[in-house]
């Protein structure tokens, strides 16, 4: 068991949207911790997704404390996410707990969680934003673009996107002041088909390597 897993702890935080939960996986050498990466889930799942698990396992060895954030609706056991405004309210309420250690905080999330991080980054003083599987548009409806949320983050931003994500393939993303890494063949959950020749572990290695390298440039 890694040092991060040994030090894993959960913290409940009251917000105006209800109680939220942070699962902390501390940097392996706390005195050398460089920053906190706070990442939230999407509208259809929790913090057990393959990408969030992979980041939580990989990053503490590199001086990064990972905070896995569960929005109030998930903590309450509800199956459907509320409106974006309510998601933003929950995230804002968590922010003081995320910054309590005095380290720079990189805001992040997957899908709907990534949208929240982008919308609130400048307001909350996020050091940067990590965007996983950004839902650039609803499947089959590229005209309904959410690019303004991504382009409006106002801070250094990394997008990690599956090559076959129906919510927006990497080639569909607009020019802007952000970086983007593709996980070849990946869908919205970064699953890769067997015929691709890429295993899930290899796909997650691409993701974690890109995030690790990018975070190292921030501090």
Structural write-up:
It is globular, with a radius of gyration of 16 Å. It has an eight-stranded mixed beta sheet with strand order 1-2-4-3-5-6-7-8, sandwiched between helices. It has seven helices and eight strands; from the N terminus they run H-E-E-E-H-E-H-H-E-H-E-H-E-E-H. 40% of the residues are buried. The mean pLDDT is 95. It is of the alpha/beta class and 219 residues long. The longest helix has 17 residues.
Ordered list of secondary-structure elements with their pairings:
Elements: H1 3-6, E1 9-15, E2 18-25, E3 35-40, H2 50-58, E4 64-70, H3 72-75, H4 84-99, E5 105-110, H5 112-124, E6 128-132, H6 147-151, E7 157-162, E8 179-183, H7 200-216
Parallel strand pairs: 3-4, 3-5, 5-6, 6-7, 7-8
Antiparallel strand pairs: 1-2, 2-4
Helix content: 25-40%
Structural category: alpha/beta
Largest sheet: 8 strands, mixed
Shape: globular
Proportion in β-strands: 15-25%
* Rg computed from alpha carbons, rounded to a whole number of angstroms: 16 Å
Number of strands: 8
Given as residue ranges, the uncertain stretches (5+ residues, pLDDT < 50) are none
Strand order of the largest sheet: 1-2-4-3-5-6-7-8
What's the total helix number?
7
Give me the oligomer status: single chain
Give the rounded overall mean pLDDT: 95
Distance between the termini: 28 Å
Which H/E pattern describes the elements?
A: HEEEHEHHEHEHEEH
């Amino acid at each position: 068991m890694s040092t991060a897993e040994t030090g894993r702890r959960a913290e409940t935080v009251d917000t105006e949207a209800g109680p939220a939960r942070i699962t902390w996986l501390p940097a392996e050498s706390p005195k050398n911790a460089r920053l906190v990466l706070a990442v939230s889930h999407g509208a259809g799942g929790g913090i057990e997704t393959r990408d969030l698990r992979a980041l939580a396992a990989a990053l503490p060895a590199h001086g990064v404390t990972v905070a896995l954030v569960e929005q109030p609706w998930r903590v309450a056991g509800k199956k459907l996410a509320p409106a974006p405004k309510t998601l933003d309210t929950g995230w804002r309420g968590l922010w003081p707990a995320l910054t309590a250690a005095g380290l720079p905080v990189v805001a992040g999330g997957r899908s709907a969680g990534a949208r929240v991080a982008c919308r609130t980054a400048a307001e909350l003083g996020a050091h940067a934003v990590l965007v996983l599987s950004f839902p650039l548009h609803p499947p089959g409806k590229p005209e309904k673009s959410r690019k303004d949320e991504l382009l409006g983050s106002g801070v250094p931003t990394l997008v990690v996107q599956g090559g076959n994500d129906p919510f927006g393939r990497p080639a569909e993303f607009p020019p802007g002041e952000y970086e983007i890494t593709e996980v070849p063949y990946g869908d919205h959950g970064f699953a890769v088909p067997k015929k691709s020749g890429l295993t899930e572990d290899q796909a997650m290695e691409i993701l974690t390597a890109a995030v690790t390298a990018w975070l190292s440039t921030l501090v």
